[in-house]
Amino acid sequence: MLRILAAAALILAGLTSVALTQETRPPEVAGLRGTAPLADNSDSPRMPRVEDGAMRRVRNYPEQPPTIPHHIDGYQVDRNANQCLSCHARARTGESGAPMVSITHFMDREGQFLATVSPRRYFCNQCHVPQVDARPPVENDFVDIDSLINPTGRQ
Amino acid sequence: MRKILTLLRTYWRTLSRPAVHLSLGTLTVGGFLAGIVFWGGFNTALEATNTETFCIGCHEMRDNVYAELQTTVHFTNPSGVRATCPDCHVPHDWTDKIARKMQASKEVWGTIFGTIDTRDEFLEERLRLAKHEWYRLKTNDSLECRNCHSEESMDFTRQSRRAADAHQSLLVPGEKTCIDCHKGIAHELPDMSGVEGWQ
């Protein structure tokens, strides 16, 4: 009996030592959070620059909300004011030269067109966002529908 | 009434007659020194009330407008140059400054009698207060903005294309002044419905 117990203890000790050495070994694969130990905070990445004054980006698919080609720091969009609309509203585009809010945004949920932007489309940032020059942490293998339809690149 | 008149007459008699006991030297030198003290004191008081610490000494300013300023580019920015309350809200020219100071005495009244004691009371007054400042900046051609942001020193090639286009087509010909487009850059906006250029 004693012998069995001793053997079991030995095996247990061996296993824990293996587990310990595995734990202390430096991690070979770094996740998105970096190599910092779990209890510590990893270094925060640099804040990337917002694309400003750039040309319009091509949409990746027809339904994609167009991206915002300028910075929108401190733009107030709440019940008091909508700074986006101070340029992009229909009546403001003449002076601002900005593209008008799409007519689809005037439609309520019953499909009725209203005279102005529908309340459910009022908060621009829900769909439209500015772009930053960040390196994507995960590779993206998105394929444009055009290259799917026409893989050889014929027009 | 008659008592007051006799009192005034006695004073006038004393003031209009030459001094009997004081020498001309005492009067001139004394008057000069007193002038320095009074004018210096006036100026010091003027300077002291023209600081941000004085402005945010009242809770109305500290908890509302100052708190909102802290999130904007006029408080923190890459170059570390910042605007304090009087930079934008008090004209630099002497006469304009005194005029604004006299208007601001209403704010002292307000803080003593608690016109704006809560956030809600401030929000109710916000549109009226904002309109005062928009009107002031509109009529003086955004002078306080231009104390730092000179149109002549703007390098349009270093601005974003959007900003450069707007400044060149509207600001330079004098069609618009800073405040026409740049409302709500240092504090939050009130309900803008009905304000020109807003929805």
Architecture blueprint of SSEs:
The complex is a heterodimer of chains A (155) and B (199).
Chain A: H1 2-24, H2 85-88, H3 93-96, H4 145-149
Chain B: H1 2-16, H2 24-48, H3 52-55, H4 59-69, H5 85-89, H6 94-113, H7 119-139, H8 143-146, H9 161-171, H10 178-181
Please characterize this protein's 3D structure:
The complex is a heterodimer of chains A (155) and B (199). Chain A is elongated and about 90 Å long. Chain A has a domain of 66 residues: Flavocytochrome C3, Chain A (Flavocytochrome C3, Chain A, domain 2). The model of chain A has no long low-confidence stretch (mean pLDDT 82). With 155 residues, chain A is mainly α. Chain A contains four helices and no strands. Chain A starts with a helix and ends in a 6-residue tail after the last helix. By secondary structure, chain B is mainly α. Chain B has a domain of 127 residues. In chain B, 60% of the residues lie in helices and 0% in strands. Chain B has ten helices and no strands. The radius of gyration of chain B is 24 Å and the shape is elongated. Chain B starts with a helix and ends in an 18-residue tail after the last helix. The mean pLDDT of chain B is 91.
Low-confidence stretches of chain A: none
Number of helices of chain B: 10
Work out the strand percent of chain A: under 5%
Output the CATH topology of one domain in chain A. Answer: Flavocytochrome C3, Chain A, domain 2
Helical content of chain B, roughly?
A: 55-70%
The CATH class label of one domain in chain A is: Mainly Alpha
The major β-sheet of chain A equals:
none
Biggest interface pair, counts: A-B, 21 and 20 residues
Measure the end-to-end span of chain B: 61 Å
Low-confidence stretches of chain B: none
DSSP strand content of chain B:
under 5%
